[in-house]
Design brief:
This protein is mainly α. The protein has a domain of 48 residues. It is built from 3 helices and 2 strands, in the order H-H-E-E-H. A hairpin with a 5-residue loop joins strand 1 and strand 2. The chain is globular, with a radius of gyration of 15 Å. It starts with 9 loop residues before the first helix and ends in a 14-residue tail after the last helix.
């Protein structure tokens, strides 16, 4: 939050999004899931899936979606 204006910034929203995703990913991910979804840790310490879209012209977030475990509040299940 900007101290001068007391308004949320885009950086605040990015940090909040990261915290929510990281919290959802605290569930233990087993080897079967890692293999099934072809998971890897990205440079922000988030689990992502390598997909068949690797060679597409999509942006990196679309090519490598963030993995969310099946049962958590972020997914709504």
């Amino acid at each position: 939050m900007s101290a001068e204006t007391k308004q949320l910034t885009s950086e605040d929203f990015k940090l909040a999004e990261w915290v929510v995703i990281k919290q959802a990913q605290t569930e233990r991910i087993n080897e079967e899931e890692k293999e099934k979804w072809n998971l890897y840790y990205d440079d922000q310490k988030l689990w992502r899936s390598q997909s068949r879209l690797e060679n597409s012209e999509l942006d990196d977030d679309s090519k490598h979606p963030i993995y969310l475990p099946r049962h958590n509040a972020v997914r709504g299940s």
